[in-house]
Specification:
By secondary structure, the protein is an alpha+beta fold. The chain has three domains: about 140 residues, 3-Layer(aba) Sandwich (Rossmann fold); about 100 residues, Luciferase, domain 3 (Roll); about 110 residues, 2-Layer Sandwich (GMP Synthetase, Chain A, domain 3). The mean pLDDT is about 90. Helices cover about 25% and strands about 25% of the residues. The chain is globular and about 75 Å long. The longest helix has 19 residues. It has eleven helices and 20 strands.
């Protein structure tokens, strides 16, 4: 109907690399913000130059040459809602590369697996354990035997696929390459996790040449082992829509080049591998030590009774804040005690990072795109402390 009612005339000027595309952030740490991308910058930073494999192109014309030279047979399946930047950009990569793109209305694990089998999907994108774990449950349960042999990659961006869940999926679909990609609405793609990423060594990524860990004040690269914030130069967004204050906080110029300063804290080693600690705004200060929720969540997800978890800081009269774990148990699991959880974590984490509070909940609250709702987790943990205090009083 919309097409029939529309004018056959063009109705807008010729396309340009300056045309804008706005991606809204997930609002994990506050209100969503509209990230204003120039099409040209998004093409190179967010779409990897439009090339899903191999070296990114240096100019758009090269993409047409690669498509003409071959590269057929790829079917992309962005399984998160298209409101999520990961899914939108996955679809755009497929369109730019002249390949099939499969989409669906809603993430339903069994339907996802049926679609993979029916459409011979080769490349799936999703958002962390919140989407990978239900696929594991379906493949080992009602969808056991589903033909997933066409798949060669499953990638996640926006949330981490934990080592535990990746291992479970790999056992069910052994020939699939699992990629923990790192990026954001403000930077596009920054890098991919190393094979040794996990609870013991942390979320380690090999970043592209435009990504560095910098001092958030001086914007200079940090020394090896020092904590800084991840930043990216080159093709970066123009800023936030109608928010000059946040734009000034996040985007800066250094040595004549434009940069974006992300919210993620990190360190870098001698080989240039970056260890992502987590978002600075979610960091828990307990007894003077800094704890990043994502690291604790990775350790907790390796517990056999834990299905999903979020970690938050709760005010504590002795420590300033203590680490609280809000846990959704596996179906049929016997509820573990706080002591059980602490014993499990001791083999993965330093003592000050171990949860001092355990809250069991029916389900973990996440956004429709799979992003964690840390505000809800904090409120849930604080309410549990208040309930215990009231009962004791």
């Amino acid at each position: 109907d919309a097409e029939a009612a529309g004018s056959p005339e063009r109705g807008f000027p010729a396309r340009s690399g300056d045309d804008q595309f706005i991606i809204y952030t997930g609002g994990t740490t506050g209100m969503p913000k509209g990230v204003m991308w120039r099409q040209e910058d998004l093409f190179f930073s967010g779409l990897g130059g439009g090339a899903p494999t191999g070296e990114p192109v240096k100019k758009p014309q090269e993409l047409a040459e690669r498509v003409a030279a071959g590269g057929d047979g790829i079917t992309f399946f962005p399984t998160a809602p298209l409101m999520h930047g990961t899914s939108t950009l996955t679809a755009f990569i497929g369109f730019n590369f002249g390949q099939r793109v499969v989409i669906h209305r809603k993430f339903a694990p069994e339907e996802v697996l049926r679609t993979i089998e029916k459409e011979k999907v080769t490349s799936v994108s999703l958002v962390g354990d919140a989407m990978l774990r239900p696929l594991v449950d379906a493949l080992s349960g009602p969808m056991k035997g589903t033909d997933c042999s066409s798949m060669f990659s499953v990638s996640s961006s926006g949330a981490i696929m934990s080592e535990t869940v990746r291992r479970q999926f790999q056992a069910l679909v052994p020939n699939v390459m699992l990629l923990n990609n790192f990026g954001s609405s403000e930077s596009g793609f920054n890098g991919t996790a190393t094979e040794d990423s996990g609870p013991e060594r942390g979320f380690r990524i090999r970043v592209n040449s435009r990504t560095q860990v910098v001092d958030p004040t001086t914007h200079e690269p940090v020394a090896v082992g020092e904590v800084g914030r991840i930043a990216q130069c080159g093709h970066v967004p123009l800023g936030y829509y109608n928010d000059p204050g946040k734009t000034a906080e996040t985007f800066f110029e250094q040595d004549g080049e434009r940069w974006v300063l992300l919210g993620d804290m990190a360190t870098v080693d001698e080989e240039g591998v970056v260890t992502v600690l987590g978002r600075g705004s979610q960091c828990i200060n307990t007894g003077g030590e800094k704890v990043y929720p994502e690291e604790v969540e990775q350790a907790l997800k390796s517990h056999p009774d834990v299905y999903d978890v979020l970690v938050a800081g709760v005010p504590d009269p002795k420590w300033g804040h203590h680490v609280a774990a809000v846990v959704q148990l596996r179906a049929g699991a016997v509820q573990p005690s706080l002591a059980d959880i602490q014993t499990h974590c001791r083999s993965h984490l330093a003592g000050y990072k171990i949860p001092r509070q355990l809250v069991i909940t029916d389900s973990i609250r996440r956004s429709p795109s799979g992003k964690a709702d840390y505000r809800w987790a904090r409120e849930t943990a604080v309410a549990a402390v208040s309930a215990v205090s009231a009962a004791d009083g």
